[in-house]
Amino acid sequence: MKTIFFLTLILGILLSISLTSANIQESEISESLLYRYPHHPYRCGYNDNCKSGETCHMVGDICQCQPIVQLNNANQVYLIIKQIGVWQDGSRGGRTYSQYDVTIVNNGNNNIKQINIGTDSSFRLRDNSDTSLWNMVRIPNGILALPPIQQSINAHSTYTFGFIIEGAFVPNLPILKIVY
């Protein structure tokens, strides 16, 4: 009888530990995603939040959350990411760097007044310096936005920005929000 009691007690403790561990792991994953993407969910309009993996499209007070799709000519707004060059810098310990040009294509019928492009750990600017980024600015949470000098991207036109990052891989750059 004591053996059954102890086995039940041990099983109960193990079950309790595994449930606590699962809750902690789920919490850690949520915190990790929040740390990696602190800009999600992105506020869209007054009452709506876009989910991770969506872009907020705002025309006046009207908001639509649409799935993020890059490099797709069917979209009204998309990015073309072009690697300009890759090199190893001996003066910086042989680190590899890449230069990219990114063209924002606005195929829509409305001028873009604001665009926010997300970044993650794949976007490591050389020397972690904004001097390695041109024609865009980094706002809190690493989000890229149009600089004050560029107040819009006209309908049926493009805008190009560039940067130098550490590494030889294409960084993740999802469009998070577009205000027309």
TrEMBL record:
State the InterPro entries in the record. Answer: CBM_49, Dd_Spore_Germination_Stalk
Q: Check the UniProt entry and state the signal peptide residues, or none.
A: 1-22
Pinpoint the Carbohydrate binding domain residues: 79-168
Q: Name one GO molecular function term.
A: extracellular matrix structural constituent
- UniProt keyword annotations, A-Z: Signal
Return the protein name.
Answer: Carbohydrate binding domain-containing protein
Q: Does the keyword Signal apply?
A: yes
Give the GO terms filed under biological process for this record: extracellular matrix organization
